[in-house]
């Protein structure tokens, strides 16, 4: 059987489609793959001895916040992996995109193992970690949202030759990539990295830096994939559908606001739910702009120290620079 050399759109589910890399059709996907390979890292490169000492100095409220962040991020890294494997990869037929998605799936597993490394290193009770947010309506509401969209990716077979099938793919992609990875995860990263501003958990902060750097690439890939699909499929260029997608994102912000109030009921030094939620709204405006929408909230960034984690739009220029934080074979 010969492989078709006729160019097709990026969406498709033919088993024999998209098996040739050259000529590269989507240079952005190829560039992201090469950057992701250069960014390969492993959690045990970072030692957590000093962080263990820091942990003993933290208040009960601070420990609760850290545990809640880890209890949410850890299992959801594997949920993202399943979403990629069952809901995204089978419907993308460009070799360069498949290469990137394969590397992203490895990265999600690496992130999961990073949180496992933290759980096993710190004096955490595993059952206590996973129960940190249990029983909260806000967490149930977020889980229900995920089941509605991300869960469907695992269970339903989409026909992406139809308008409705393509719309379902876009809804699912927005829910996992823009909402879960691009807004909800960043809220947790910000809380986890805030301790470093007080000279606490600096090495945990480094691990979160590396995870965030990966997530920026994941977001850039997802946004480019979404915009490419919209460009290649005129039947999706529907103002009513666009408004639905915008509404999906804004609903997710409401859920995250309630969750953050549960995670930080009393606040901790330098951080409270209002502060985190303003950051969530700032990041959401960034995501909306990256998708071509107008801003919704028009708020300033309260966490300018997170600026390096905010700028997915600038990653086009990022490819031209050397990532000295962790780049394979880099010369320092």
UniProtKB/TrEMBL annotation:
Its EC number is 1.17.4.1. Its cofactor is Fe cation. It is an enzyme of class 1 (oxidoreductase). It comes from the Bacteria. CDD domains: RNRR2. The keyword Oxidoreductase applies. The chain crosses the membrane at residues 173-193. It holds the Pfam family Ribonuc_red_sm. Signal peptide: none annotated. The keyword Lipid metabolism does not apply. It catalyses: a 2'-deoxyribonucleoside 5'-diphosphate + [thioredoxin]-disulfide + H2O = a ribonucleoside 5'-diphosphate + [thioredoxin]-dithiol. Keywords: Deoxyribonucleotide synthesis, Iron, Membrane, Metal-binding, Oxidoreductase, Transmembrane, Transmembrane helix. SUPFAM superfamilies: Ferritin-like. Binds 2 iron ions per subunit. PANTHER family: RIBONUCLEOSIDE-DIPHOSPHATE REDUCTASE SMALL CHAIN, RIBONUCLEOSIDE-DIPHOSPHATE REDUCTASE SUBUNIT M2. Provides the precursors necessary for DNA synthesis. Catalyzes the biosynthesis of deoxyribonucleotides from the corresponding ribonucleotides. Belongs to the ribonucleoside diphosphate reductase small chain family. This is Ribonucleoside-diphosphate reductase subunit beta. It comes from Candidatus Southlakia epibionticum.
């Amino acid at each position: 059987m010969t492989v078709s050399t006729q160019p097709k759109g990026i969406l498709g589910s033919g088993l024999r489609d998209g098996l040739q890399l050259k000529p590269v059709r989507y240079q952005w996907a190829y560039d992201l793959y090469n950057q992701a390979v250069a960014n390969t890292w492993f959690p045990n490169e970072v030692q957590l001895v000093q962080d263990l000492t820091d942990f003993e100095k933290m208040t009960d409220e601070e420990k609760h916040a850290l545990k809640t962040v880890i209890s949410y991020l850890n299992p959801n890294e594997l949920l993202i992996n399943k979403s990629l494997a069952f809901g995204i990869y089978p419907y993308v037929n460009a070799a360069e995109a498949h290469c990137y998605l394969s590397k992203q799936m490895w990265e999600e597993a690496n992130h999961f193992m990073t949180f496992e490394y933290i759980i096993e290193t710190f004096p955490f009770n595993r059952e206590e970690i996973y129960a940190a947010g249990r029983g909260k309506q806000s967490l149930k509401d977020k889980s229900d949202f995920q089941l509605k969209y991300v869960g469907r990716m695992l269970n339903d077979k989409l026909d992406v030759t139809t308008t409705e099938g393509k719309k379902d793919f876009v809804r699912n992609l927005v829910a996992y990539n823009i909402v879960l990875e691009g807004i909800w995860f960043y809220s947790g990263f910000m809380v986890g990295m805030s301790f470093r501003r007080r000279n606490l958990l600096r090495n945990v902060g480094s691990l979160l830096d590396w995870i965030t750097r990966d997530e920026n690439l994941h977001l850039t890939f997802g946004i480019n994939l979404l915009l490419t699909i919209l460009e290649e499929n005129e039947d999706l260029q529907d103002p009513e559908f666009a408004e639905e997608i915008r509404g999906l994102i804004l609903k997710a912000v409401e859920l995250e606001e309630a969750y953050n109030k549960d995670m930080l009921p009393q606040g901790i030094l330098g951080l409270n739910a209002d502060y985190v939620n303003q950051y969530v709204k700032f990041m959401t405006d960034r995501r909306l702009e990256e998708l071509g929408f107008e801003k919704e909230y028009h708020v300033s960034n309260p966490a300018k120290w997170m600026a390096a984690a905010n700028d997915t739009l600038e990653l086009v220029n990022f490819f031209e620079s050397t990532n000295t934080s962790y780049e394979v074979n880099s010369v320092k």
